């Protein structure tokens, strides 16, 4: 019995752990569902933002196309309409154009003379002479600097040598008793001094000569460097002026070529406008053809068809009868077979017809319909690139530029919906259906646990089950009671 109790306690603990795991799993799944719903809401908001952005860009594109159409119309009107007064120089008459070209060349030569000074050959010779004189002056200056530098160094060396002799003379070592000893010491000192002076003089002169040469060379290199730098600056300035002159000349040549092309186009257009030889030849040929046909009709004495379905003969009376018959049919009144009356009625009929046509065209309804038709044509021209935005003439109700973001958003939404459906089915199959299937086993385990630990609670559960079974129909109640009895 004790082993069974321990087994039941272990079973209860396992069941409690399973229930806790189930709750944790349920909470995790609920949290995942909440995260997925948040992602869906974020993607929905993003889709609406993308849709609004696409609409805004479509409106912006429409405005840009409208502005582009206006600018294109203005440019077309500017280049097709004859400008008065002329806007460009090539639109002037030929005399005024030549006068403008002459004034431009005068101003150009003045500008060249003021900004680009050209030296003569004599000026170049003078600069060469000045350069030689300048080099001679530099050489003389270098020699004089070398001479005076040497003299200065000699005097300074003498003073330093005298001072060194005074410093070397030690009176404590000289022991003089008589005048002969003084003379002897003086001679020895003179000889020693001369020897030292000779050695020092030679070494100092060698060092001095070397330093003077180095200094002079450095000085000359510095002067040459400055002179070369000045020449380089002048050469750079000349190069800049040459570049500017080249640019100005190239621009002037290109402008002249453009003006020449424009003049040729204007002359060609005017020539095509005033040369009507082909038209005159065609009219002359048509006139000759008509004269030939009339002569053939006069000679043949046979009926000939004419334009409009009428027919005539060489007899003038029959022609007048046919014309009068046609006019009577159209006018609804009798017209006499006379040339004057036929011409008068025909002129009257054509004048009334033109008045009726102008009245019909100028009426308010026709003008309103014409304006509406023009407005629809303009709207169609603006919206046609958006509707027929494809290689074929087929309508597309979405702009190609925004199809990819919309397609990506739709695919992401479908993928998230598919994941949600998969999670719901897994939850239904693994948790809900399992709970429904194991309901009898769980109730059995609970009743056994209550029977062993809390019998009173088991009795209360049986009574509640009986009360619930009494409220349902008989068959269901009998089934539930039999199940409770079996338990």
From TrEMBL:
This is (Mediterranean fruit fly) hypothetical protein. InterPro entries: HAUS3_N. Residues 19-74 form a coiled coil. It is found in: Cytoplasm, Cytoskeleton, Spindle. Belongs to the HAUS3 family. It comes from Ceratitis capitata (Mediterranean fruit fly). The keyword Coiled coil applies. It comes from the Eukaryota. Residues 5-158 form the HAUS augmin-like complex subunit 3 N-terminal domain.
